[in-house]
Write a structure and sequence with these properties.
By secondary structure, the chain is of the alpha/beta class. Helix content is 21%, strand content 26%. The protein contains six helices and 14 strands. The strands form two sheets. An eight-stranded mixed β-sheet has the order 1-2-9-10-11-12-13-14. Strand 6, helix 2 and strand 7 form a beta-alpha-beta unit. Helix 1 crosses helix 2 and helix 3 crosses helix 5. The longest helix is centred in the C-terminal third of the chain and has 12 residues. The protein is globular and about 50 Å long. The structure holds fe (ii) ion (FE2). The site of fe (ii) ion has 6 residues, from loops. Belongs to the metallo-beta-lactamase superfamily. Glyoxalase II family. InterPro entries: Metallo-B-lactamas (IPR001279), Mito_Persulfide_Diox (IPR051682), POD-like_MBL-fold (IPR044528), RibonucZ/Hydroxyglut_hydro (IPR036866).
Amino acid sequence: MLQKLSLSGLKVVKKLCIVPKVECGIRFLSSAVIKRQNFFFRQLFDTVSSTYTYILGDMRTSEAVLIDPVLEHAERDATLVKELGFKLIYAMNTHMHADHITGTGKLKTLLPGTKSVIGKASGAQADIHLHDGDLVKFGDYQLTAVSTPGHTNGCLTYICHQQCMAFTGDTLLIRGCGRTDFQEGSSERLYQSVHSKIFTLPDHYTLYPAHDYKGQTATTVGEEKKYNPRLTKTLKEFVHIMDTLNLPYPKMIDKALPANRVCGLY
Ligand SMILES: [Fe+2]
């Protein structure tokens, strides 16, 4: 059952019950080969912050969304969207990033009509604020916004059940996870989020993180349940691991956070 939210008439709807019945007929080996029905998918990369940006589109209706765009690549992304004949309706973030400035603000000026989207709990300004369970529709496809706090309070994982894929932001990385020692970080919450919201998805769901630092592009629920060196541990062991990472102060955080608090609006 779907219930429409009154968000300026936009195509964001609240789902009251999620029943992911769709079975994927194809196992995808890499992002490059995903092409099913009218679904378009492209993974893009920023070498400075090792951030992945994703374009998802419906080739039938030409509606598309961008997930986690980076400011320095807004021109690249806008050009690609136009070349492909898409109309960008949403520029979305999985959370308020600390390691780069989001490209959502610039994309709004480059592609008029685009709305910025982020989780309400992020505290960042945007045209649309999402809550747990909200649906973001583009053409015949939809993303379910699932609240997965821990790296930050406002972290969302975007799940496309129709394509058996999820965009985990920094909540779950390939064989890793986002750090929990700044913003509203909480190791306990991140562990609970992953185990209750991501590891409960079917094993074959492909997971696309916000970053990778070792050259990998995607993973699956089954792989991470088996091989993630942190999240296969007990909660107590996981908290100890996160408490003793001794990571350096994030070099972009003082510049990125103030910009990202408002970037979705200009
Ligand atoms: Fe992050």
